[in-house]
Write a structure and sequence with these properties.
There is one protein chain. The protein is an all-alpha fold. Helix content is 79%, strand content 0%. It has three helices and no strands. α1 packs antiparallel against α2 and α2 runs antiparallel to α3. It starts with a helix and ends with a helix.
Length: 71
């Protein structure tokens, strides 16, 4: 299994537990809006990453892309 898939298999249930608890405390509509903004920010950050042919040292782009997938 690729490392990004492993990351999602760990992050999604943990995020569900955290945001479910937060939704009970703050209200589900506010938490829904917050998660949509987080997903939009992560999508925007992926768009800012350099392309395939960019000269970036040591797999830095892969790490940035993985961190964007978690967000």
């Amino acid at each position: 299994m690729p490392s990004s898939a492993k990351t999602c298999c760990i992050a999604r249930p943990l995020g569900g537990i955290f945001f479910g608890w937060l939704g009970d405390k703050m209200g589900r509509q506010k938490v829904l809006a917050m998660t949509l903004m987080l997903m939009a920010a992560a999508t925007f950050a992926v768009g800012l990453l350099p392309g395939v042919r960019a000269t970036v040292p040591g797999g830095f782009c892969k790490r940035l892309r993985r961190s964007c997938r978690i967000g």
